[in-house]
């Protein structure tokens, strides 16, 4: 009887104790306590479980698990059309908010599409992939959203949950802290996972064992838990961002170093090339004209006739002197011809050597540019998630689903003021770590995955986007994320960016020394000029003949290229454009006095030019333009060629590293890639041109111009 009374008393006392602690805790725990072990994922959620959840001073919430083992109400059967599955960790799961306040629930309201919350606390990137693999087979969703949480996902990429967490009486604990074995007895599961009194006792014992130690649980203790070897933290994120920045800086420095070395190499080639070409011109002039100085000295020594001499009707030289001059002229002519032949023989070898040297130097310079075209660098370092995203996309593609990526920042990345809730007065500057989110979005878009960085959306929701004393989102934060994700789902992917360098078989425009080494073939007709062809490029110089109006404009009708360079001068016009052997070119020529048509044909791989007049008026207002003064100060103005529209960008882009002055300016307007200006954000170089173009595709049409294919993508051309 006494034993029974004692037992009843103990039972009532324990019940009262349990009740007291349950009331104190508001019937909630600060951790999820219904995990079951899983050999592949480490843990799963117990289907049908529920619990109260309260973290520190944050409001109490209720968590319910459906029959599929995921948060929220039961999923509809059969699967619905246009379903969205969201995979992730505790941020997706929604610790600290009600079932209906998670961003998955808000996204369903915002889009009108069924959204399944498949987030599970403790999961990392490998588990997201495996959950998606299961649900793609079971549900056949139209869209899979993966949320990469930068609190820990960058460090758990190669750390599966089976190595990080173990289940201990329904709790998920870090594997390093899990017991090797437990003693099972009836009621243990409820006692150690559902009893508030036992939980309070375990907390007290843990606090006593670690008194003076560095860590407490996350229900209201020290926020900067140093963790265990199985976890990463913000320190790792800072270090990773610094490494990424260092890699990016090193890549940029190496690229600029290569460009600088190429410029130096080309300059080293150009100096002797210019010297050899000057010697060639001097030698050719000497061979052509000779030096009749002696003859003119003899003539100068003669004296005009004496006007007082009355023996001749006209004053002048004496007949004797005149006859002597004629005789000497004949002799000098013969001597000059002999000297010319002798000089030609003596210098023929030197002439051939100079021509060979010039050709070699020109070829070397062009080889450097060709190598630059093939070795254009990646515009950015790879994200740590590159291979993972490619694997995830391949999985979704296999099942006909679209993958969408969300880069979710840490609270202190969003707002440095969040450090205060952790009792940190001056936390580390997390702004440099933003590069990691930027890189993962860039990686995703390169793989044709819709993605976005949630930092801006959460920053706009501050203050109040994050829980007090914790990194998880509040209902306000979830709503902001849902709104941003819905907006991203409504927008198409950005267009592809053309590949770096040039397509196979394409070359950059030859430089002036290369053109100087190529014979300019004259042509005549309604307009006169010369034509040259080199390395897949055509150079057409239209010059004004005597008493003939110069060409004012060229309109290419067939065979044109966005890389074409047109330059008008006082004496005509120059067109330099890519044109492969055998490709036709037709252009309309405009003068003040009429219109002509120019046609380029081919004979034995050589261009042939035909220019005919047309019986029509220009039909447009022709305005005379001349090369900009900045170019005329650098080269002969009447022979200028290049793209004058590039002058402002080229002058603005001149730096000490790229080289200032005439060489850089002329190289820039003539599409020399070593002197290409930087393009504005959202634009790229294309068509072996130093001009900048906006990428486009069917989902991102051009505001102006035509969407034109180039090097695996397309850009907007024309319409200016």
Automatic annotation (TrEMBL):
SUPFAM superfamilies: SGNH hydrolase (SSF52266)
Coiled coil, from the record: 239-286
Residue ranges, annotated region (Disordered): 210-234
Keywords for the protein's UniProt record, in alphabetical order: Coiled coil
Domain of life from the UniProt record: Bacteria
Entry GO MF terms: hydrolase activity, acting on ester bonds
Gene3D superfamilies tied to this protein: SGNH hydrolase
Protein's name according to its UniProt entry: AlgX/AlgJ SGNH hydrolase-like domain-containing protein
Protein source organism: Nannocystis exedens
């Amino acid at each position: 009887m006494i034993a029974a009374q004692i037992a009843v008393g103990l039972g009532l006392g324990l019940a009262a104790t349990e009740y007291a602690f349950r009331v104190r805790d508001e019937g909630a725990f600060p951790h999820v306590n219904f995990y079951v072990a899983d050999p592949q994922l480490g843990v799963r959620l117990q289907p049908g479980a529920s619990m109260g959840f309260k973290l520190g001073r944050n409001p109490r919430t209720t968590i319910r698990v459906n029959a599929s083992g995921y948060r929220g109400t039961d999923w509809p059967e059969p699967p619905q059309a246009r379903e969205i599955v969201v995979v992730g960790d505790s941020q997706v799961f929604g610790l600290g908010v009600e079932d209906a306040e998670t961003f998955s629930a808000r996204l369903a309201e915002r889009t009108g599409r069924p959204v399944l919350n498949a987030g599970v606390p403790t999961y990392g990137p490998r588990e997201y992939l495996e959950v998606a693999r299961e649900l793609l087979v079971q549900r056949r969703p139209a869209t899979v959203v993966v949320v990469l949480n930068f609190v820990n996902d960058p460090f758990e990429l190669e750390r599966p949950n089976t190595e990080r967490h173990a289940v201990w009486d329904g709790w998920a604990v870090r594997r390093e802290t899990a017991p090797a074995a437990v003693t099972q007895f009836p009621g243990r599961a409820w006692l150690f996972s559902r009893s508030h009194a036992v939980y309070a006792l375990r907390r007290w014992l843990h606090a006593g064992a670690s008194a003076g130690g560095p860590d407490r649980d996350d229900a209201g203790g020290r926020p900067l838990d140093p963790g265990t070897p199985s976890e990463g933290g913000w320190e790792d994120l800072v270090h990773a961002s610094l490494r990424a920045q260092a890699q990016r800086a090193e890549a940029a420095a190496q690229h600029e170093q290569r460009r600088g070395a190429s410029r130096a190499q080309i300059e080293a080639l150009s100096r002797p090339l210019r010297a050899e070409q000057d010697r060639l011109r001097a030698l050719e002039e000497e061979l052509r004209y000779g030096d009749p100085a002696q003859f003119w000295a003899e003539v100068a020594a003669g004296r005009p006739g004496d006007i007082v001499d009355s023996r001749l009707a006209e004053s002048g030289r004496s007949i004797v002197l005149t006859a002597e001059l004629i005789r000497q002229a004949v002799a000098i002519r013969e001597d000059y011809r002999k000297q010319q032949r002798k000089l030609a023989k003596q210098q023929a070898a030197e002439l051939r050597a100079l021509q060979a040297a010039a050709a070699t130097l020109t070829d070397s310079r062009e080889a450097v540019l060709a190598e630059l075209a093939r070795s254009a660098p990646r515009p950015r370092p790879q994200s740590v998630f590159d291979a993972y995203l490619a694997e995830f996309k391949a999985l979704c593609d296999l099942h006909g689903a679209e993958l969408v990526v969300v880069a979710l920042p840490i609270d202190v990345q969003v707002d440095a003021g969040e450090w205060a809730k952790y009792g940190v007065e001056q936390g580390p500057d997390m702004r440099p770590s933003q590069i990691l989110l930027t890189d993962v979005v860039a990686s995703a878009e390169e793989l044709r995955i819709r993605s976005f960085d949630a930092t801006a959306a959460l920053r706009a929701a501050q203050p109040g986007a994050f829980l007090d004393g914790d990194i998880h989102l509040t209902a306000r934060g979830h709503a902001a994320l849902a709104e941003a994700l819905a907006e991203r789902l409504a927008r198409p992917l950005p267009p592809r960016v053309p590949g770096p360098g040039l397509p196979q078989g394409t070359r950059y425009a030859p430089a002036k020394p290369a053109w100087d080494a190529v014979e300019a073939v004259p042509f005549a007709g309604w307009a006169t000029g010369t034509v040259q062809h080199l390395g897949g490029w055509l150079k057409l110089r239209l010059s004004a003949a005597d008493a003939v109006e110069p060409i004012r404009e060229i309109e290419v009708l067939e065979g044109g290229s966005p890389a074409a360079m047109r330059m008008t001068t006082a004496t005509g016009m120059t067109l330099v454009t890519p044109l492969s052997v055998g490709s036709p070119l037709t252009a309309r020529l405009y003068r003040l006095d009429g219109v002509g048509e120019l046609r380029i044909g081919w004979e034995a791989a050589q261009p042939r030019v035909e220019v005919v007049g047309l019986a029509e008026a220009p039909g447009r207002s022709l305005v005379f333009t001349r090369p900009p003064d900045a170019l005329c100060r650098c080269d002969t103005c009447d022979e200028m060629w290049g793209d004058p529209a590039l002058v402002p960008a080229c002058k603005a882009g001149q730096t000490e590293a790229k080289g200032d002055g005439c060489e850089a300016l002329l190289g820039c307007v003539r599409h020399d890639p070593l002197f290409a200006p930087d393009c504005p954000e959202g634009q790229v170089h294309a068509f072996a041109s130093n001009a900048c173009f906006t990428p486009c595709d069917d989902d991102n049409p051009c505001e102006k111009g035509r969407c034109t294919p180039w090097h695996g993508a397309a850009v907007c051309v024309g319409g200016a």
